[in-house]
Request: fold
Amino acid sequence: MPFGLKIVPQNNQGLVETLGKYRRSVESGLHLYIPMIQKIRKVSLAMEPLSLPNYSIITKDNADVSASVTLNFHVTDGVKYQYENTDSVESMAQLVRGHLRDIIGRMDLNEALGSTAKINQELALAIGDLTNTYGINVDRINIDELTPSKAIQEAMDKQLTADRERVATIAKAEGEAKSIELTTKAKNDALMATAKAEADATQTRADAEKYRIDTIQSGLSHADEKYFQNQSINAFSDLAKSPTNLVVAPTDNASEFGKLPVIGKLLGEGIKKA
Reply:
């Protein structure tokens, strides 16, 4: 009976079947087989990517989220991969989905959305080595996206908008309160400064007036009779120039008239200032 030739490519494993029954495994290279009786089935051992479509998961607080997962795997046992499972890849995908539902189902929505790295680690540990079951090993697994349902997204957007508006309102109110506080303080400081300036000016004027009066009184206390006589002469001179028809005064106290201009001047200026 003639022999056939079969080439098993690099990084592949050949499974030799005789009359439909697995007989042995062969490595990559050129191999002989008996046509019609034998068959060499090729199984790739290279790493392959797999994308799992979005599917629904319910969180602990009954929120509906859609998960998207990608993973890389390679065949470690061609016999188990090919003969012990009808579809080892789909079986592996179902196992991944089941563990992912279990992990996320124990989390609240906010915790799940912020813990993708943690979920990846727990999922990798849960899957482990699938060689003994499916002849497959998962090299890398990653959750690409966790998306809440449209209704939940709308509710979250409304909540986020409300929180932002609340923060903005509080900030605006605090700013207005601070502005009023600063304005009031500035006005109070200005009033206090004005009042102090006026008080200082009044005190200065009072001190000056007191000094003037004290100076005049001090001068009068040291004035002699000649000074008052001279003032009397000036007083009578002014009386003579006035329209008064008659002035009668005792001659023995005529010197007292010298004090009249000084006293009148003091009284006049006091009345003006008052």
Summary: The radius of gyration is 57 Å. The mean pLDDT is 79. The helical segments are 78-83, 88-105, 109-113, 116-127, 131-134, 150-221, 225-241, 259-273.
